[in-house]
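hey
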């Protein structure tokens, strides 16, 4: 039986050495296969501190090095891939180290960081139809910059990522376009994006009950697909059937075409069977 790649983790702390570690966010990072969806909510303000989604590429197994691309990014770091080195600690937590932009300092310098991550339990027993884990990306893409000679001002797409593992669901949406900026005195087209809207929903995965919206933020949050709104089933129409099971295939959720980026039916026991 194949080992599941589905994971949901929360960040315990962030540290910029030599400063002490701290945590001001409620962060959940969900991943299945080679894709992830990550939503970080500032606890005090209730607003998005950082939201991103994209590919999760394992560059090395030993040491564990993972590259994260940014197809959605509230900080607009679309051309930047995060590279994290992970070390498993004795208590089961994962220590991630690397370098990234520090936005709270003047000039946003690149600094060394340490993030401590803790995996949340995915139950071994769930109700029938609740053992799915997947990541979806809306099909519409910005055209390749090399194909745009003029008229880029009117090119916009609404990019959406949806991710689910048993007991957890994250949805992110961002309008994206191209803009011109000066680089070394020359005009260059770059990808830009608006504010990210997000939803994070949770439920008791062992029973399929007590579903709740933990966060709904941003102007588009109420227009994002919601598993809670799906009712008692906690499923989208056709979920787990046919094309849902085949990465690269197109499925429809709430009238929007999505590419299946990753799908697993977890090796778990069904309640009552």
């Amino acid at each position: 039986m194949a080992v599941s790649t589905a994971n949901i983790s929360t960040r315990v702390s962030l540290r910029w050495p030599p400063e002490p570690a701290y945590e001001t966010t409620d962060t959940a990072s969900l991943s299945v296969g080679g894709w992830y969806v990550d939503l970080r909510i500032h606890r005090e303000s209730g607003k998005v501190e950082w939201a991103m989604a994209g590919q999760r590429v394992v560059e090395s197994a030993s040491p564990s090095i993972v590259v994260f691309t940014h197809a959605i990014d509230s900080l607009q770091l679309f051309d930047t891939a995060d590279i994290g080195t992970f070390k498993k600690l004795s208590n089961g937590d994962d220590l991630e180290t690397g370098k990234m932009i520090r936005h709270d300092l003047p000039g946003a310098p690149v600094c060394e960081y340490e993030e401590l991550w803790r995996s949340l339990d995915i139950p071994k027993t769930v109700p029938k139809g609740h053992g799915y884990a997947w990541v979806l990306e809306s099909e519409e893409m910005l055209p390749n910059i090399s194909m745009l000679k003029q008229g880029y001002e009117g090119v916009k797409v609404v990019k959406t990522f949806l991710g689910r593992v048993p007991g957890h669901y994250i949805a992110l949406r961002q309008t994206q376009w191209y803009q011109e900026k000066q680089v070394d005195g020359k005009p260059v087209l770059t990808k830009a994006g608006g504010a990210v809207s997000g939803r994070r929903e949770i439920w008791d995965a062992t029973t399929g009950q007590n579903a709740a919206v933990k966060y709904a933020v941003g102007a588009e949050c109420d227009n994002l697909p919601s598993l809670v709104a799906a009712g008692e089933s906690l499923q989208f129409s056709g979920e787990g059937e046919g094309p849902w099971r085949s990465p690269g295939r197109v499925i429809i959720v709430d009238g929007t075409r999505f590419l299946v980026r990753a799908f697993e039916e977890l090796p778990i026991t069904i309640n009552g069977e």
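The mean pLDDT is 93. DSSP finds no helices and 19 strands in the chain.
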